[in-house]
């Protein structure tokens, strides 16, 4: 039989499994975000000890590598002082005539649908450093955002 028609194993025909992509930049976290990372690592460490099929074990190990990396690179940020929009703060602002409130957190803790955005998001970058009464450019528009209030992160 020709070598061209031999197959050593089924592995060579499977989709390659790449590592989970890490967000670019520093891994800034709130205290709550760091606790969530630690909890996730503990859950995954327990999971890989369970009897799993080969694919489930590989997936759990892959996810565990991601979270261990995030844990090892986490940079705990200090609590914001509340005087200006900063990492870990709750910020209320007016954009396009609507008043909105967001919390600025790390990449892994972000949940935009619930008003929790990553510090790397364009909206957060526009808000960071602004104090109540300040305006900020956003989406190519000058003074598109009016900062109304800055406070501690919600519970």
Automatic annotation (TrEMBL):
Keywords: Kinase, Transferase. It comes from the Bacteria. Residues 1-18 have a biased composition (Basic and acidic residues). Residues 83-142 form the Transcription elongation factor GreA/GreB C-terminal domain. InterPro entries: GreA/GreB_C_sf, Tscrpt_elong_fac_GreA/B_C, Tscrpt_elong_fac_GreA/B_fam. One of its GO terms (molecular function) is kinase activity. Pfam families: GreA_GreB. Transmembrane segments: none annotated. SUPFAM superfamilies: FKBP-like. The keyword Lyase does not apply. GO terms for biological process: DNA-templated transcription elongation; regulation of DNA-templated transcription elongation. Residues 1-25 are annotated as: Disordered. The keyword Kinase applies. PANTHER family: TRANSCRIPTION ELONGATION FACTOR GREA, TRANSCRIPTION ELONGATION FACTOR GREB. This is Nucleoside-diphosphate kinase. It comes from Sphingomonas parva.
């Amino acid at each position: 039989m020709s070598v061209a028609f031999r197959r050593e194993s089924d592995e060579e025909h499977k989709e390659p499994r790449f590592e989970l992509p890490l967000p670019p930049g520093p891994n800034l976290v709130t205290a709550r975000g760091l606790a969530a990372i630690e909890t996730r690592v503990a859950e995954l460490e327990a999971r890989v000890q369970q009897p799993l099929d080969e694919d489930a074990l590989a997936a759990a190990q892959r996810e565990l590598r991601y979270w261990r990396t995030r844990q090892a690179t986490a940079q705990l940020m200090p609590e914001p002082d509340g005087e200006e929009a900063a990492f870990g703060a709750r910020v209320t602002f007016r954009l396009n005539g609507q008043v909105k409130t967001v919390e600025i957190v790390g990449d892994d803790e972000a949940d935009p649908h619930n008003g929790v955005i990553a510090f790397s998001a364009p909206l957060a970058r526009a808000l960071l450093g602004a104090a109540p009464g300040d305006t900020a450019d956003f989406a190519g528009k000058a003074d598109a955002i009016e900062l109304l209030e800055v406070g501690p992160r919600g519970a």
